[in-house]
């Protein structure tokens, strides 16, 4: 108990974030449409995948313009900005950081010059061989930096655009096909040059990526919710190990690696929107089934079942259905807290999750309550939730979790806590229950969760639960979120993390005279 309790604190707004996926990507090829506005609303639908920064690049066939900044999609863009991003192709991106700090320089799409045109690239995932790619850039260019690397960009995405600069090939498409097999880890890429939209997915298909059809064009996006938002019909998922190219000649597909599926199981548990479908399985139905299975495995005598909104709701519905207990809304969520740059005072900070959730006292008072959530990371949130319910008069609080204990960090695009901070690492269920103040605690079994996804175990990544990583990891000193943050590339300036919306002093690209110029040098704010 002391070990589990020692990891808890009350600074919930900053110290106990939910698991964060790296990014959402969106691309559109649609002559005659306002592509920047399509990208804007596509990113709006993907905002849950990244809330630190956002950006859109657009091409009119001759020039690429990009606008990006720190903040939510609605904070970064306005009507005037979107009206200036004209053309027939656009790529959009919303970011959570897993490689490189959260600052303006690391916002995407990332620009890069190649002999065949300019590339604007958005990336969802996390490369595991970033150190190897960084070494390749140093070997080719020595102390000379260029493009976004010279602007202080410290992401794995900037390394990809830098390597494309001299990759062999008589066209950008050939260069891409030569480079993609060298990338290791999780990557879903949406990118473009002046005339062509591209999308690529890693051989394991760790993160989702889908292709959709507009009446006058094509769309690619991290999830099909973005397709529905812009009125596109779903065609299919982009396959693991596949590159597609879209231009005036249509859609071309290339296989750059054999598929070896290891789709992220946590997408089904929490990350994806409930209205997503991944490999033919409805995410909402998977979560409801996780709740049903949890009830079969860990049914408890109680009066009501309540969810922790919003992510615990489908599983709570399934738990109530399978257990026969009444479903109730025990919490009301304030959806707008946390979507602001205004920092709360220390007094408000101590209130933690109370700024986000209010208990319905008359629903829980005097009741034995089963409260269902999707996961426990550090445990601070669950401690606060249990405390709120008991203060509201709940007679008993039994916590049910629709995923197995999270014991291992993710290196494929989810920004979990470190292993030492994960409460389930080294603590028993009874110890965790005591630490969070619950009368009992139960997790779904790994087998039950996998069965609910409808996927064969061999095609899923469950590394955060099991420690079994399907993509080989480099040594510890050659991985990590801040691997590229220090000036490891000779001559690269150190970029201090910025906390506001304003860019650093060097906010325009300064290109070496010997490299192919960008078709248009645009202010990146």
Structure commentary:
- This protein is of the alpha+beta class and about 525 residues long.
- The chain is built from 19 helices and 23 strands.
- The strands form 6 sheets. It has a 7-stranded antiparallel β-sheet. Strands 5-6-7-8-12-13 form a 6-stranded antiparallel β-sheet. It has a 4-stranded parallel β-sheet with strand order 17-20-21-22, with helices on both faces.
- The longest helix is centred in the middle third of the chain and has 15 residues, at about 285-295.
Structural class: alpha+beta
The Cα radius of gyration reads 23 Å
Which outline best applies?
globular
Kindly report the average pLDDT value.
85
Number of helices: 19
Strand order of the largest sheet: 3-2-4-1-10-9-11
N- to C-terminal distance? 50 Å
Record keyword descriptors for this entry.
single chain; 525 residues; alpha+beta; seven-stranded antiparallel β-sheet; six-stranded antiparallel β-sheet; 22% strand; disordered C terminus
Brief rundown of the structure:
The chain is of the alpha+beta class and 525 residues long. Helices cover 27% and strands 22% of the residues.
Secondary structure layout:
Layout: H1 2-6, H2 12-15, E1 23-29, H3 35-45, E2 53-59, E3 64-70, H4 73-76, H5 79-84, E4 89-95, E5 110-114, E6 117-127, H6 130-141, H7 147-150, H8 156-164, H9 172-179, E7 185-192, E8 197-201, E9 210-214, E10 217-221, H10 224-229, E11 233-237, E12 242-247, E13 250-255, E14 263-264, H11 265-271, E15 277-278, E16 281-282, H12 283-297, E17 304-307, H13 313-323, E18 331-333, H14 346-351, E19 357-359, H15 361-364, E20 368-373, H16 380-391, E21 396-401, H17 429-436, E22 440-443, H18 446-453, E23 460-461, H19 463-466
Parallel strand pairs: 14-23, 17-20, 20-21, 21-22
Antiparallel strand pairs: 1-4, 1-10, 2-3, 2-4, 5-6, 6-7, 7-8, 8-12, 9-10, 9-11, 12-13, 15-16, 18-19
Helix pairs in contact: 6-8, 12-13, 12-18
């Amino acid at each position: 108990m002391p070990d589990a309790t020692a990891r808890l604190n009350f600074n919930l707004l900053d110290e106990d974030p939910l698991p964060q996926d790296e990014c959402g990507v969106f691309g559109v090829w649609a002559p005659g449409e306002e592509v920047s506005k399509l990208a804007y609303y596509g990113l709006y639908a993907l905002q849950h995948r990244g809330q630190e920064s956002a950006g859109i690049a657009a091409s009119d066939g001759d020039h690429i313009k990009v606008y990006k900044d720190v903040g939510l999609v609605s904070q970064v863009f306005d009507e005037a900005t979107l009206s200036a991003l004209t053309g027939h192709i656009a790529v959009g991106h919303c970011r959570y950081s897993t490689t490189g700090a959260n600052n303006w320089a690391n916002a995407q799409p990332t620009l890069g010059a190649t002999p065949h045109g300019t590339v604007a690239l958005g990336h969802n995932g996390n490369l595991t061989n970033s150190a190897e790619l960084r070494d390749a850039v140093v070997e080719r260019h020595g102390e000379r930096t260029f493009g976004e690397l010279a602007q202080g960009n410290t992401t794995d995405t900037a390394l990809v655009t830098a390597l494309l600069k001299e990759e062999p090939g008589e066209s950008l498409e050939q260069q891409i096909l030569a480079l993609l097999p060298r990338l290791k880890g999780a990557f879903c890429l949406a990118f473009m040059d002046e005339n062509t939209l591209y999308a690529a997915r890693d051989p394991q298909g760790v993160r989702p990526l889908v292709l959709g059809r507009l009446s006058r064009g094509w769309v690619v996006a991290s999830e099909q919710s973005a397709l529905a938002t812009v009125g596109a019909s779903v065609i299919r998922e982009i396959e693991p190990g596949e590159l597609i190219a879209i231009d005036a000649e249509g859609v071309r597909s290339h296989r750059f690696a054999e598929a070896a599926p290891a789709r992220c199981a946590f997408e089904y548990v929490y990350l994806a929107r409930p209205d997503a479908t991944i490999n033919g399985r409805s995410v909402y139905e998977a979560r409801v089934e996780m709740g049903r299975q949890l009830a079969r495995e860990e049914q408890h005598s109680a009066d009501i079942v309540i969810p922790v909104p919003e992510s615990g709701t489908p599983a709570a519905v399934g738990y109530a259905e399978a257990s026969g207990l009444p479903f109730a809304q025990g919490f009301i969520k304030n959806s707008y807290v946390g979507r602001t740059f205004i920092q709360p005072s220390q007094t408000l900070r101590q209130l933690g999750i109370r700024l986000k959730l209010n208990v319905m006292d008359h629903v829980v008072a005097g009741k034995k309550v089963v409260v269902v959530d999707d996961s426990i990371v550090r445990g601070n949130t669950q401690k606060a939730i249990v405390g709120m319910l008991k203060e509201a008069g709940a007679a008993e609080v039994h916590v049910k979790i629709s995923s197995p204990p999270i014991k291992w960090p993710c290196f494929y695009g989810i920004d979990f806590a470190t292993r030492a901070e994960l409460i389930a690492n080294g603590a028993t269920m009874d110890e965790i229950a005591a630490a969070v103040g619950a009368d009992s605690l139960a997790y779904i079994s790994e087998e039950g969760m996998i069965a609910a996804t409808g996927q064969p175990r061999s095609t899923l990544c469950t590394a955060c639960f099991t420690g079994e990583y399907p993509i080989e990891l480099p040594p510890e000193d050659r991985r990590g979120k801040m691997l590229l943050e220090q000036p490891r590339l000779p001559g690269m300036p150190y970029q201090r993390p910025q906390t506001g919306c304003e860019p650093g002093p060097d906010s325009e690209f300064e290109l070496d005279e010997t490299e192919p110029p960008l078709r248009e040098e645009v202010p990146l704010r």
